[in-house]
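worker-03 picked up job from queue 'complexes'. Input manifest follows; two sequence lines, order preserved.
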Amino acid sequence: MLYDPQVVEFLTKEFVFTKVDVNADTALARKYSVLVTPTMIMMNADGSEVDRMGYYVDKDIFLTTFSDFKKGIGTLASMEKKASTSVSPQLAYDIGERYELRNDAESARKWYHRSISLLKPDDSLAAECRVAMADIEYRRRNYPVAIAAWDSIAVSFSGGYFEEMAIYFRGYMYKKLGDTARSLGQWEQYLLKFPEGSMAGYAREQKDLLKPPEPNKK
Amino acid sequence: MRRVFSSLIVMISALACSLSAGIKAPIEPSLEAALAKSRATGRPVIADFHALY
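worker-03 finished. Artifact:
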C-alpha cells in the first residue's frame, strides 16, 4: 500500500515519517501503549499523540483518516466532544474502539457498555461491543474471562456468525490454557454446527492435531 | 468484524509485518529525529509501530 505513489507523496509532503520496531524499542511501544501491530500514530512535534490507526487498512482509508486527523476531524478528542452533547450507539462504539486501540481497557469497556445501553440486546452492534470486550480479555490473556464472555455471546446470538466465532475462539483459548479435551470439543462442535463455516478447514486441522491417536488394531 | 479477522490473522499465521514494509518515502531514523524535524518543518509526525517476526 505504501509503495503507492500517492501515499508516498502524502507522507513526504504532509508529515514526517518514521518507523519504530516494537520488539527492539519496547520502551517506546510501552510509552505509546501500542496494542497491535501495525499501529500508525500521528504526533505533534512535542511527541503528544493526535490519534492513531491500527490494523491493516487500504490506501483510501489511510489517506482519508490521516488527512482528517490533521484537520482535527475524526480524532478521539473530537468524537468525545461530540458525544458530550449527543451520543449515538455507533459513536459510543467508535470511541470505545479508539480507547481499546490505545490499550485503555477501562475507558473502552465504559464506552462499549454505553453503546449497548442504547441498543436492543439482539442488535448486531451490541454483539460487536460484546465481542470487543471479549477481545480485550483475550489480549490481556484473561482466557477464562474471555471464554465466559464468548459463552454469553454464543447464547445470545445462537445459530449465526457470532456463535460460529464464539466456538472458534473458545477452541483457541482452551488450547492456550492447555485444556486439550475442551479445545477438541470446541472444534468438534464447530464442525458439527458449521461444517461449511469460514473456519471449518482450520477447525478440522486442529481437531486432527488434538485427537488422540487410535490404538493399533490387530 | 475487522477485529475478529485481525485476531484470526494473528492467531493463525502469527505473521504481522509492518504496514510500511518497503516504503519509499523518506524515513527518519528514529522518533527523536522525526520529532526534531517536525519542530523544524511544522509538519506532524506519523510513526509506524511495527513488529518484525
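worker-03 released lock.
Chain A has three domains: 5-72, 75-140, 142-212.
Residues 180 and 210 of chain A are 7 Å apart (CA to CA).
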